[in-house]
Write a structure and sequence with these properties.
The complex is a heterodimer of chains A (249) and B (314). With 249 residues, chain A is of the alpha/beta class. Helix content of chain A is 36%, strand content 24%. Chain B has a domain of 214 residues. The chains are: A alpha/beta (249), B mainly alpha (314).
Chain lengths: 249, 314
């Protein structure tokens, strides 16, 4: 393990008009850790992800990726530094095949200014490895827009993995999935290599307690608790604002 | 089958003046075909933006016009009609202009991109119209010398025809090559989901700018060929009408395909030049055709035929 945390956030603020979506978020995620971010709707989870990926600049605060200050860097530069995101609402290349969706992620490392031929058999073979890993074997030539909701989530994950990231942000990976699909994708996430650091926003508490090493609870843009799953489960405040309701539901 | 057919079609086009002698009006047809080919290059260049990268430019005539003016002015002022010099001048000027305009436009998307490109093209038009000392103002340039290549003259109609068709072949080959390459696929990625492309680590603005400059340079080539074909350049070549023309060709023929812009250029020029002498209101016909495609067949002629072919094969 390196000395610096894989991802460290300090005093992150972001307001939209008068609303403080992030109101002083600090957290440090160790190398290889699985960290879940939970909290009620509007707690600032998605805003936090948008700031981490550079899609929204923070009003103040710093973000460090493996010890380097990356605050305010463009999304594409953060991706090149090893940050990948599985989007909550799928961001796919709809008319392209599943294989080509993954191939675009693979090709990013070498850059787009190449007049050599894309869609080679070597490239296909490489892309198919990722498709198989997420359970999309046999669907390589299906267009993204023709996939079922569950398959689209799987493809979304395959694309993020094909970026070979160091830090992976998972934004509600099981959203809208059937119980069987949820079980298989959470098993898949659980089996990912420990060299990868994972932040996960998820509403399904079973998935959270199974996958997370540590949990941060956000409430109104602020972390109100952090600890192991057992610690967080026992926290009175957390139970009052969130867990009580989430577990009943 | 498709590559063989394309090569056969291309060779027939290239040798048209040689075998069409017996057909009545073949000289006139050669002229029409030449102009269709010039506009096919122009439409292909715009399709790189509209069809591949999803950048709806309504100011493409800025680069067509600047290429035409650059070729005309270069052959007049540099006292040479050498193709390598005058064509290079056209490419350099239109590419440089595309770089400047592109830098200011690629931040915008959709309708804002469209309006910005239109506004900048109108500025280029205004310069062509008012900078009389250099551009000839509203009179434009007449009597432009046709180029020479090595010792070869292109002042004869057949020779110029061949030059135009050869350049068209090279440009088509380039576009085809790009469409199969990593670069071409990355442009499609930007068209389909720019946000995801950024998240994958692509610098999408740079990518869009590169396409804008390349498309501008190729439009400049088309403009230079038009200057030699018509031996005349006027501010209209940089005007909004010329920009719209390319857009209509791409949409009627089929955006994002290699054949579409070529077919679109053929259809538009046919209506404009051939049908106009046979029936009144041919421009209205073009309007009706365009509206029909926008309403009923957004994929254009080539896109719709392909979709139909896929349905039949199933």
């Amino acid at each position: 393990m390196s000395a610096a945390p894989a991802l460290a956030v300090e005093g992150l603020h972001r307001s939209f008009g008068g609303i403080h979506a992030l109101d002083g978020v600090s957290l440090a995620v160790a190398d290889g850790e699985r960290r879940a971010i939970i909290g009620p709707n509007g707690a600032g989870k998605t805003t936090l992800f948008n700031v981490l990926t550079g899609e929204i600049p923070p009003s103040s605060g710093t973000v460090r990726l493996e010890g380097t200050d990356v605050t305010g860097l463009a999304t594409s530069d953060l991706a090149r530094r090893g940050l990948a995101r599985m989007y909550q609402r799928n961001e796919l290349f709809e008319p392209l095949t599943a294989r080509e969706n993954v191939a675009l992620a693979l090709a990013a490392a070498k850059g787009p200014y190449r007049l050599s031929r894309a869609r080679t058999s070597a490239e296909s073979a490489e892309a198919d490895v990722y498709l198989e890993r997420v359970g999309l074997a046999g669907r390589e030539t299906a267009r993204a827009r023709g996939l079922s909701h569950g398959e689209r989530r799987q493809l979304e994950l395959a694309i993020a993995l094909a970026q070979s990231p160091r830090v992976l942000l998972l934004d509600e990976p099981t959203a809208g999935m059937s119980p069987a699909e949820t079980a298989s994708i959470s098993r898949l996430i659980g089996e990912l290599d420990r060299s990868l650091t994972i932040l996960i926003v998820e509403h399904d508490m079973d998935v959270v307690f199974r996958l997370a090493d540590r949990i941060t609870v956000l409430h109104e843009g602020r972390p109100i608790a952090e600890g192991t799953p057992a610690e967080v489960r026992g926290d009175r405040l957390v139970n009052d604002v969130y867990l009580g309701k989430a577990l009943e539901a | 089958m498709a590559p063989l057919a394309s090569i056969g079609f291309y060779l027939a086009l290239l040798t048209f003046p040689d075998w069409s002698g017996a057909i009545e009006g073949s000289r006139y047809m050669t002229t029409i075909l030449r102009d269709m080919t010039v506009f096919a290059i122009y439409a292909l260049s715009l399709d790189l933006l509209v069809g591949r990268a999803g950048m709806p430019s309504l100011g493409h005539a800025a680069f067509y016009g600047s290429g035409a003016y650059a070729a005309a002015i270069a052959s007049q002022r540099l006292a040479t009609s050498e193709l390598t010099v005058t064509l290079a001048a056209a490419i350099a000027v239109s590419a440089a202009l595309a770089l400047v305009i592109g830098l200011l436009c690629v931040r915008a998307t959709g309708i804002f991109f469209l309006m910005l490109t239109l506004a900048f093209a109108q500025m280029v038009f205004a310069v062509a119209f008012q900078w009389t000392d250099v551009t000839g103002g509203s009179n434009g340039f007449a009597g432009i010398a046709r180029p020479t290549f090595g010792g070869l003259e292109t002042s004869a109609p057949e020779a110029l025809y061949r030059l135009v068709v050869i350049v068209f072949g090279l440009v088509s080959l380039l576009i085809w090559w790009i469409s199969r390459s990593h670069y071409g696929r990355a442009l499609v990625g930007v068209r389909e989901n720019e946000r995801r492309m950024r998240a994958l680590g692509y610098h999408t603005r740079r990518l869009k700018l590169s396409a804008f400059v390349l498309a501008g340079a190729l439009a400049g080539v088309a403009g230079a060929l038009s200057a030699w074909s018509f031996r005349f350049v006027s501010p209209n070549d940089a005007g909004i009408g010329r920009s719209v023309e390319a857009f209509v060709m791409v949409l009627i023929g089929g955006a994002g395909t290699l054949l579409g812009p070529i077919v679109g250029a053929g259809v538009v020029l046919y209506i404009d030049r051939v049908l106009s002498s046979a029936i009144p209101f041919s421009q209205a016909v073009l309007g009706v055709v365009f509206v029909a495609f926008v309403l009923a067949a957004r994929q254009g002629i080539v896109g719709s035929l392909r979709a139909a072919l896929v349905r039949v094969r199933r």
